[in-house]
């Protein structure tokens, strides 16, 4: 993207998303190879561009954010860049026009529940089942299984997807985290960081829960170990 450029992005009829009947999509949007500061704004295709931003960056870093965007003309959303950057757009869910909440899945919002912290020394003081990740730093290109169902007061069954705040901490080289319901090589990213920052980088993640009630978090960095923190803020059942 060049500064001031906007492009339509097709979101319906792709990657398991129905071709019609979709009111909005859940996207993970990443800005990378940035030159100077700037921001992305996503909005329905055919609508007037809003003045709000969905993701902000500074020069040279990779930044991701979760965005819910109404679908516009021809099943598209519009992506506007105020500065120079490349964009990576991953779709992780959608909202159907026909969903009434009475017969479909229901969403439950929660106060944050910390269920995993791999940092050495247990700085979150987790105990019991919530201590499942204690002192379990992810090595390069490794993964960790995080139990969701039955942890921290969450239901022991019936969770189809979970809404988490996922934080990458203590990394010293560029990389990314990817959340999957199954143990398989990831093709998308959920949290991105650059090694020069050496700061904690969070992102909101909507992730499918597998038949065992778990999610799997993968460290996509080939050079750096990384610690993760997982806070559950909601779930979907049904």
Notable characteristics:
238 residues, mainly beta, four-stranded antiparallel β-sheet
Compact description:
The protein has 238 residues and is an all-beta fold. It is built from no helices and 15 strands.
Main beta-sheet strand count, sense and barrel state = 4 strands, antiparallel
SS content category: mainly beta
Count the beta strands: 15
- The SSE string, one letter per element, is EEEEEEEEEEEEEEE
Helicity range: under 10%
Give me the side-by-side strand order of the main sheet: 1-6-3-4
Chain-wise SSE layout:
Layout: E1 5-10, E2 22-35, E3 38-44, E4 55-57, E5 63-70, E6 76-81, E7 84-96, E8 106-117, E9 143-147, E10 159-169, E11 175-180, E12 191-193, E13 201-208, E14 214-219, E15 227-237
Antiparallel strand pairs: 1-6, 2-5, 2-7, 3-4, 3-6, 8-15, 9-14, 10-13, 10-15, 11-12, 11-14
Explain how this protein is built.
The chain is mostly beta strands and 238 residues long. It contains no helices and 15 strands. Mean pLDDT is 88; it is low at 99-103.
